[in-house]
Amino acid sequence: MDIKIQHLTKSYGFQKAVDDISFSVSTGEILGFLGPNGAGKTTTMKMITNYIPMDTGEVLIDGRSVQTGEMQRHIGYLPENNPLYPEMPVMDYLAFCAALQRVPKADIPQRVREMVRVCGLDIEKHKKIGELSKGYRQRVGLAQAMIHDPAILILDEPTTGLDPNQIVEIRELIRQLGRQKTVILSTHILPEVEVTCDRILIINRGKIVADGTAETLRAQAQGQQVLHARIEDGEPGEILQALQALPSVALVDFLDGAAGSGFLIESRPNQSSNRAVFQLCVQRKWTLCELIPFETRLEDIFRNLTMN
Fold first, then answer.
1. What are the extents of the domains in the chain?
2. Which of 19, 17, 21, 18 is nearest to 7 (CA)?
3. Domain 223-298 falls in which CATH fold?
């Protein structure tokens, strides 16, 4: 199911938590929803799920408003604070959640067993939730979000409290789910976003400041292509002059600490120099040991867009 957010706004007193934002998410897409604390991520997710009312704007799921209350059954939601009933055993809690989501009574045992398997809860399934570690509680939260097999998953910090092995497992689970479902994923673990998400949306002070793939955001932030080339079997000054003469090259300089064999090559706008550098080395019979593009880190992009 597709989600379409139109001019969504939410204020708390005089502060606008979400300020007239619009975006869409397609079926089979995993959207990474990023932003600093207080940027409006959780508020937006709560409005998408109709957990809190919006001031203005609309959230449409397959063209139908969530405000009617009819579309909530298609949504699985893992809130940031993952509210659970600590006195309930895991199996009983999941069965209770399945009943709340109107899973047919005859199907509830099978759905509970499936979620226990998928979320790696088998060895803890007979314990009370209050006896579980934080990581296993997070798994229970994921299981309740998926118990009714929703078409849409809204996951607010789903890997909080998980150890590295568990993070990898849940990340792979989310990727598998994203092939058939629409997923909005909020997290502060930026490498996780790159590995898991198809697209990244960054919000700051209630407004969208970036929207695109990791590669697109890097290209926008970086501007011209920058290459690090390590070239041997030639005189450094001669290599420098030859590189500067290439039509696609705007600027060349020795790379700091590179003993004459390392070069920084900045291409002209909207041009790539990879092929030209390679062909030059072949013609001059120089050895091209490295040709590595410099990439702007997602962490740097995030900081540049949100540090204001």
1. 3-212, 223-298
2. 21
3. Alpha-Beta Plaits (3.30.70)
For the entire predicted model, the pTM comes to 0.76
- Centre a 10 Å sphere on the Cβ of residue 270 and count the other Cβ atoms it contains: 9
**Spatial separation of the C-alpha atoms in residues 118 and 177, rounded to whole Å:** 11
Strand order across the 199-204 sheet:
75-78, 152-156, 182-186, 30-34, 199-204, 207-212
- What is the distance between the alpha carbons of residues 191 and 168, in angstroms, rounded to a whole number? 12
Specify the residue for token string 């998410």.
25
> Of 96, 108, 93, 168, nearest to 135 (Cα)?
168
CA distance 195 to 13: 38
Residue 73 token pair: 């059954």
**pLDDT digit string (tens) for 142-179?**
999 999 999 999 999 888 777 788 788 888 888 888 88
Task: Classify domain 3-212 by CATH number.
Answer: 3.40.50.300
Nearest to 263 by CA among 229, 224, 225: 229
**Tokens of residue 51, six digits:** 């957990």
Structure tokens at 238: 């001669």
